[in-house]
Write a structure and sequence with these properties.
The protein is of the alpha+beta class. The protein has 3 helices and 8 strands; from the N terminus they run αβαββββββαβ. The chain is 25% helix and 31% strand. Strands 4, 5, 6, 7 and 8 form a 5-stranded antiparallel beta sheet that branches. A hairpin with a 2-residue loop joins strand 6 (102-107) and strand 7.
Length: 131
């Protein structure tokens, strides 16, 4: 049994980026799909797809690198953990690295970046930071 599946996904992405893998495979769920979709919308990954398999479908995330092989995802960190949940209102969400990074939130309107949350004026649980 896994106690923190989001931390598992972030660790898999972090490890795959460090060894310059073209993609990373993770067990799928709605939350992980939302996380991959936000990373795609914000330009941190190329794309993602769901591959049906047994006993559970696999989410394949295609990682993005610069023209000379430099990492697009330099830092990815879990903020809200099972032992300490971190919540924030939309007014309290400040830009990460003056707008060069993002926070990913779980809100009542779904998984979204801090930019989208400020625009829609909705707060929620801060899942992670990426830059």
């Amino acid at each position: 049994m896994m106690t923190d599946p989001i931390a598992d996904v972030l660790t898999r992405i972090r490890n795959a980026v460090r060894v310059e893998r073209p993609h990373v495979d993770v067990p799928t769920s709605n939350l992980k799909r939302g996380l991959a979709d936000v990373l795609k919308r914000e330009g941190y990954v190329w794309d993602w797809e769901e591959i049906p398999s047994q006993p559970r479908a696999i989410l394949r995330i295609y990682l993005k690198y610069g023209p000379n092989g430099e990492q697009v995802i330099r830092h990815i960190r879990r903020i809200s953990k099972p032992g300490r949940r971190v919540y924030s209102r939309a007014a309290d969400l400040k830009p990460v690295l003056n707008g060069f990074g993002i926070r990913i939130l779980s809100t009542s309107r779904g998984i979204m970046s801090d930019r989208e949350a400020r625009q829609k004026k909705v707060g929620g649980e801060i899942l992670c930071e990426v830059w």
